[in-house]
Amino acid sequence: MNENSKNITLRLINAVKNQQSDNSPDTMIEAARSYTDPSLWLKEQQQFFIDTPQLVGFAGEIESPGSFITATVMNTPVVITRAEDGILRAFINACAHRGARVAEGCGTRKRLNCMFHGWSYGLDGKLAGRPKNECFASDNAQTNLIALPVSDNHGLLVVGCHPGVSQAQVDTFLDPLAPALQDFNFRAMRSIETRKLDVNAHWKLVVNLSHESYHFSVLHRDSLSPFMTDHFVMDSYGIHTRWAFPMKGIEQLADKPENEWPRHLPGIINHTLFPGTLLIANPQDAQIIRAEPGKTIDSSVVYYTGAYYNEDGFDEEKRIEAKKAYDFGGDIFASEDLAAAEQCQQALNAGLSQMIFGKNEPVLQYWHNLWKQQLR
Ligand code: FES
Ligand SMILES: [Fe+2]
Predict the structure, then answer these.
(1) What pTM did the predictor assign?
(2) Predicted confidence (pLDDT) per residue in 262-298, tens digit
(3) Strands in 200-282 per DSSP E
(4) Domain that holds residue 112
């Protein structure tokens, strides 16, 4: 176990032994406006999502030349490629002819082909060929894919969903969290699948689900609670946070020499990237939960991605185990957590005027304050 994980493990052991987590000094009252004000929602949508880099996947997915993956960010279809020249690139996944998609899913190939009339592009985004080429003037009309900023720092794929997001913004987005991310070999992660979930709740209500353990023993009484405790430690890193909680029994490690501790923290580490994307690192696998505003203020779209460590080459057994964990977590998230968020939304729609965040919900408090601070 590396020093950083040891440090978190020690803090979690102390939290369990002393029955003392990183609580807030006070209770916080949050006015319902945070979730119900349409002008606030629009501003947040623009600044926090459209103009902020977004984590969409793991960089190992497109390590080899010729590979590509696709994603959707704020309704913008995105394709990320690594061409034969080895350069990582991202584009709006829209053909220069009339806009149909040039790639679906992920894979390896020499050309991206539009499904509508067959224009084809190199993985560098340049038009490579089109049927009946003689019917099109060879002037300087834009015939290449529109480039987007993209970075694979720390083994994580971060993109801007329009060309107005700068490459520097994307390159430096994760920097504040670097001390926490260095513990993980995210580049060795291979994605299992991404589920898209349409949720009838404001995006903050979805993010809030992953920011407190107070609900574990009630909402997840029969699912997670048998092996998780509600103790936690929290750290902030600029506009990002880390919030970790242990498996039951972590305190038994205190009786063992540290060199006999497992390689990874026996618990779960939730990194939250501004404005609320969860990068969840477990001992064997990882998940990304990215919630973004939906079509209306009381809806959101959630992308839930699962991945497994593939450090020593492809291992089908590891993939199957990670898929089980992904399905288990995803089913609980959908049927228990998201269902609770939708109930909270119904209450807001019915006129609930405020929410109360306890001292034992400091991550909720932190993020609600941060969202307010960050809004220009
Ligand atoms: S829209 Fe792509 S070839 Fe026509
Ligand atoms: Fe939960």
Answers:
(1) 0.96
(2) 988 899 999 999 999 999 998 788 999 999 999 999 9
(3) 233-237, 240-246, 267-273, 277-281
(4) 54-170
Question: If you average pLDDT over every residue of the chain, what do you get?
Answer: 95
- Non-local (6+) Cβ contacts of 317 within 8 A are none
Pocket test for ligand 1, best of 119, 121, 145 (most atoms within 8 A of CB): 119
Tell me: do 151 and 248 sit in the same domain. no
Same domain, 9 and 37: yes
Phi, psi of 352 (to 5 degrees): -50, 130
Indicate which CATH number applies to the domain containing 111. Answer: 2.102.10.10
CATH of the domain at 282: 3.90.380.10
Residues whose CB is less than 8 angstroms from the CB of residue 165 and which lie 6 or more positions away in sequence, other chains included: 51, 52, 53, 148, 149
Which candidate, 325, 333, 319, places its Cα nearest to that of 191? 319
Span 234-244, pLDDT tens digits: 999 999 999 99
Q: How far apart are CA 72 and CA 120, in angstroms?
A: 21
Q: Are residues 58 and 47 in the same domain?
A: no
Domain boundary among 150, 170, 190: 170
Task: Find the ligand nearest to 211 CA.
Answer: 2
Look at the alpha carbons of 244, 209, 189, 284 in this order and tell me if their dihedral is positive or negative: positive
Which ligand approaches the C-alpha of residue 100 most closely? 1
The SS3 assignment for 19 reads coil
136 lines ligand 1 (CB under 6 A): no
Task: State which of 97, 104, 120 you would mutate to test the pocket of ligand 1, scoring each by most atoms of that ligand within 8 A of its C-beta.
Answer: 97
Predicted pLDDT of residue 140: 65
